[in-house]
Specification:
single chain, alpha+beta, five-stranded antiparallel β-sheet, about 675 residues, five-stranded parallel β-sheet, Flavocytochrome C3, Chain A, domain 1, 18 helices
Length: about 675
C-alpha cells in the first residue's frame, strides 16, 4: 500500500505553533511510564540526549551503538560550535533571525514550522548544557563567548575551544550514565541494528547483532527512535568516521519509511586535501577557522604552478599577488559565506588552474592566519601597554591569542600534514561532510512507519539543501532534549494498556531469518574482491558524478554504473572469517550493500531535481555568476521516496509542498 505524507503541522501563528502543540498533546502519567519500552539506535548527541531524557522521565529505555562506548559517537568530531539565538553579543540576533538564516542558508528547501521550532528551543539547549557542566568558552567577565559561522552576520555560535562536539557529548553521556545507574537505561555497546520489526503496522522492535560474539538478538519495544547519523560515507572518502553508515535508515526505508531529499549532501569547504589513492578518510578543519583565517590562491597561474612544483612557498607570494576570492566575490560575508558557496568557489578556482596542492589533481587552496596574528597581536600590545613593540613581538603575541582559540586544531593539522600552520598557511579543499537528506518525518519527528521516530542527522527536517555551520549539534540536542520527550508521549499514550511486546512472533521470526540469511550469504559467497574494493568504486562514481557538481549526463551514467557495480558486488564480494566473533569485514559488507542501493537513489533524486539549490548543484542550472538557480515553481517541495522492491529505479516519488508564509523567498545573496 502506498504511503501517505501528513506533515501534521499545527495550525496557528508560527510563533505559537510549538507552544500550543505541546499544550494539547496527550501525556503519559509518571506512574505509567515504567510500563513502556523504548529503543534508541545511536548514542550521539541526538540519540544520547533522547535516551537520557526518556529514561529520566521514567520510560524503560534500551540504547544501542556499534562503538565500544557512547563516547565514541561521531558527534565527538564536531569541532566549531553550536548555534543559539541568545544575542549575548548584542548584535541584533533573535529567534526569528536564526530561523531566517537557516531557511535562507538551506536555499528555501526546508519546512518552515520545524525550523522555527529549532530556533525557538535553541536557547534552552545552552542552559541545559551549562547546567550539565559543559565548559563553554567565556569572556573576561564570565559570560559565555560567541563567534561567527558561515551564512550569518551575527555571533551566535557557542563553543568549547575546538572540541565542542566532544564536550556536548560528554554532557549527554553523563546524563545517560545517571540513568544507567538507576536501572532505567540499558546500554548495548558493540551492537548493530540490522532490521526493524513491524507488527500490525507499528514499529515494535529490532533485530541486532552483538558485534563481539556474533549473536543475533531480538529486542522489542513500544516505539523505536533512529538517531544513527548521516550517510556521507556512501562517497567512501568523507569527513565521517569510517564506521559511520546508513544501514539503520536504509533498513527502515525498505520497511516503509519514506526517504526525503537523498541527494542533498553537504560539501564542507575546509578539509585537508586528499593526498593519495590509499587514503581511507578525510579530516575536517573546523569552520570556526574561517573566523580568523583568510582563504586565497595566487592571482597568477605561474605562481600556482611554481607552488605545486615545490619551487615557491606561499609566504613568498606578495599580498598584492594573492586572490582572496571569497572576499572579492562576496564582500558582505567574505570568508563566512555558507559552506556550499565557499566549496563551489574553491572548486572554480582550482578547476581554472589556480589550485596550490601538489597532488595529482592540484586541488587545494590556502587558509591563512597571518593577518589575524597581526590584528590580535596589536590588540594584545595595547592591553599590556607595551610601547614601540617590534613586528616579531606583535606576531608572537597574536599567535598566542590564536592558539588559545584554535590550538588543538592547529596541532591536529600539523600532526597530519607535517606543516606548521603558525608558520605557513593551511592547505584546504572541499570534501563530503553532512547529509541534509534523510528519513522523512512529520512535525512530531515520526516517520511514515507509526512508532518509528527519527532524530538528528538521520532525518531530513531542518536544513533544506544546505546546513549552516554549527547547526548540527543544535538540531541533535533539540530533537533529543526538547522535542521527542513531548511528541513521543503523545504517541505512547495509546500504549499504556498494550503490555510487554513479545519477541516470540512470526514478525520477529521472519526478520531474524532475513538477517541470518544475509550473513550466511556473505560468508559463503565465493567471490574474489574485498568489500573495500566495491566501496571505493562506488565512492569514485559518487564523487565524480553525484558530487559537488552534477549534470544530467553524469547522473544517468551514475545510475547505470551503480546498478552494474551492485550486481557485481553480490556476485564477487569476498568476506573472510566467521560470524561468531568480531568480523569487521562482515560488518562492512552489510553497510556497503546498503550504500550501493542508497547511492543509486541519491543519483535518481539529483536527476529528478532540475534546478540548483544549496549543496545540490546542477551545472545546467546556474546564474551567469555561477550561483545556484532554483526553480521555485516546479521544485519547492520535499522529495520523499517510497521503496518499491529491489529495483531502485522503481522507487515511488511523493511530494510534500513547501509553503512559506513567514519568509519571503528570494535568490540567495551573500554579496
Amino acid at each position: 500500500m502506498s504511503i501517505k505524507l501528513d506533515p501534521r503541522i499545527p495550525e496557528g501563528d508560527i510563533h505559537e505553533k510549538w507552544k500550543n502543540h505541546k499544550d494539547h498533546m496527550r501525556l503519559v502519567a509518571p506512574n505509567n511510564r515504567g510500563k513502556i519500552d523504548v529503543i534508541v539506535i545511536g548514542t550521539g548527541l541526538a540519540g544520547g540526549s533522547a535516551a537520557a531524557s526518556l529514561a529520566e522521565m521514567g520510560y524503560k529505555v534500551k540504547a544501542f551503538c556499534y562503538q565500544d562506548s557512547p563516547r565514541r559517537a561521531h558527534s565527538i568530531a564536531a569541532q566549531g560550535g553550536i548555534n543559539a539565538a541568545k544575542n549575548y553579543q548584542n548584535d541584533g540576533d533573535s529567534v526569528y533571525r536564526l530561523f531566517y538564516d537557516t531557511i535562507k542558508g538551506g536555499d528555501y528547501r526546508a519546512r518552515e514550522a520545524n525550523v522555527y521550532r529549532l530556533s525557538e528551543v535553541s536557547g534552552a539547549i545552552i542552559d541545559q548544557c551549562v547546567a550539565q557542566g559543559v565548559p563553554f568558552a567565556r569572556e573576561y567577565g564570565g559570560l559565555l563567548d560567541n563567534r561567527s559561522f558561515g551564512g550569518t552576520q551575527v555571533q551566535r555560535t557557542f563553543y568549547a575551544a575546538g572540541q565542542t562536539g566532544q564536550q556536548l557529548l560528554l554532557g549527554a553521556y553523563s546524563a545517560m550514565n545517571r540513568q544507567i545507574g538507576k536501572g532505567r537505561l540499558q546500554m548495548y555497546n558493540r551492537h548493530e541494528m540490522l532490521e526493524i520489526v513491524i507488527i500490525d503496522g507499528k514499529a515494535r522492535g529490532i533485530i541486532a547483532r552483538d558485534l563481539v560474539t556474533g549473536e543475533i538478538e531480538r529486542h522489542s519495544a513500544h516505539a523505536v527512535v533512529i538517531a544513527s547519523g548521516g550517510y556521507g560515507n556512501v562517497f567512501f572518502l568523507s569527513t565521517n568516521a569510517m564506521g559511520s553508515n546508513g544501514t539503520s535508515v536504509w533498513k527502515i526505508h525498505k520497511k516503509g519509511a519514506a526517504f526525503a531529499n537523498p541527494c542533498f549532501t553537504q560539501i564542507h569547504p575546509t578539509c585537508i586535501p586528499v593526498h593519495g589513492d590509499q587514503q581511507s578518510k578525510l579530516t575536517l578543519m573546523s569552520e570556526s577557522l574561517r573566523n580568523d583565517g583568510r582563504i586565497w590562491v595566487p592571482k597568477k597561474k605561474e605562481d600556482s604552478e611554481a607552488i605545486r612544483a615545490g619551487k615557491l612557498k606561499p609566504t613568498e607570494i606578495k599580498e598584492e599577488d594573492r586572490d582572496y576570492y571569497l572576499e572579492r566575490r562576496y564582500p558582505a560575508f567574505g570568508n563566512l559565506v555558507p559552506r556550499d558557496v565557499a566549496s563551489r568557489a574553491a572548486k572554480e578556482r582550482c578547476d581554472a588552474g589556480y589550485g596550490i596542492e601538489n597532488n595529482a589533481t592540484g586541488e587545494g587552496v590556502y587558509l591563512d592566519f597571518s593577518a589575524s596574528f597581526v590584528k590580535y597581536g596589536k590588540e594584545k600590545v595595547n592591553e599590556l601597554d607595551i610601547h614601540n613593540p617590534s613586528e616579531e613581538e606583535i606576531i608572537k603575541l597574536g599567535k598566542k591569542v590564536v592558539e588559545a582559540k584554535y590550538g588543538n586544531l592547529f596541532t591536529m593539522y600539523e600532526k597530519i600534514t607535517g606543516d606548521n600552520p603558525y608558520e605557513t598557511p593551511m592547505k584546504i579543499y572541499p570534501a563530503v561532510h553532512y547529509t541534509m537528506g534523510g528519513i522523512w518525518v512529520d512535525y512530531n519527528l515520526m516517520s511514515t512507519i507509526p512508532g518509528c521516530f527519527v532524530a538528528g542527522e538521520a532525518n531530513f527536517s531542518d536544513h533544506g539543501a544546505n546546513r549552516l555551520g554549527a547547526s548540527a549539534l543544535m538540531q541533535g540536542l533539540a530533537d533529543g532534549y526538547f522535542v521527542l520527550p513531548y511528541t513521543m508521549a503523545d504517541y505512547l499514550a495509546d500504549e499504556i494498556r498494550t503490555g510487554e511486546i513479545s519477541t516470540n512472533t512470526p514478525e520477529f521470526d521472519e526478520a531474524e531469518k532475513h538477517v541470518k540469511e544475509r550473513i550466511e550469504f556473505f560468508l559463503n559467497n565465493k567471490g574474489t574482491k574485498s568489500v573495500d574494493y566495491f566501496h571505493k568504486q562506488l565512492g569514485k562514481i559518487m564523487w565524480n558524478k553525484v558530487g559537488m557538481a552534477r549534470n544530467e549526463k553524469g547522473l544517468k551514467e551514475a545510475i547505470v554504473e551503480i546498478e552494474e557495480l551492485r550486481k557485481e558486488f553480490w556476485k564477487d564480494v569476498k568476506v573472510p572469517g566467521s560470524d561468531k566473533t568480531i568480523n569487521l569485514e562482515l560488518e562492512k559488507a552489510g553497510r556497503v550493500a546498503d550504500f550501493l542501493e542508497l547511492g543509486q537513489l541519491m543519483a535518481m533524486d539529483a536527476l529528478n531535481r532540475n534546478e540548483s539549490c544549496g549543496g545540490h548543484f546542477r551545472t545546467e542550472y546556474q546564474t551567469e555568476e555561477g550561483e545556484t538557480l532554483r526553480d521555485d515553481e516546479k521544485y519547492s517541495y520535499v522529495a520523499a521516496w517510497e521503496y518499491n522492491g529491489e529495483d531502485i529505479n522503481k522507487e515511488i516519488l511523493h511530494k510534500e509542498e513547501l509553503n512559506y508564509k513567514y519568509i519571503k523567498i528570494a535568490a540567495r545573496n551573500y554579496k
